[in-house]
UniProtKB/TrEMBL annotation:
This is Cystathionine gamma-synthase. GO terms for molecular function: cystathionine gamma-lyase activity; cystathionine gamma-synthase activity; pyridoxal phosphate binding. One of its GO terms (biological process) is transsulfuration. Belongs to the trans-sulfuration enzymes family. It comes from Vibrio parahaemolyticus. It holds the Pfam family Cys_Met_Meta_PP. Keywords: Pyridoxal phosphate, Transferase.
Amino acid sequence: QVGALVAVDNTFLTPVYQKPLELGADFVIHSTTKYINGHSDVIGGVVITKTEAHAEELAWWGNCIGATGTPFDSYMTLRGIRTLGARMRVHEESSQHVLNYLQQQALVAKIYHPSLPDHPGHEIA
């Protein structure tokens, strides 16, 4: 309404589970060091935008201050992207096992997890 730009850190959901540009964000940020690379052998990050003008400005700043990855880091990150979907499915399955276990524990009073029907964000999860 007031023209503010919206940036979303999508590091932990990854593009497998959420695509913020499709939800109206102007920028998406990922720490590629985490799930996208997935092998703990690269330090990096990425900013994605939906407009050519913002992309050109980000590229200019990246070149100007040297905030760009090496070709080898890019190669290693691409290697991780190839297995991202499979790795995220295993994470999801594992979290469901933990969730099922916790639901059976008398000492656990409340569980907040988007896959549960009583979670406030369940409909959009």
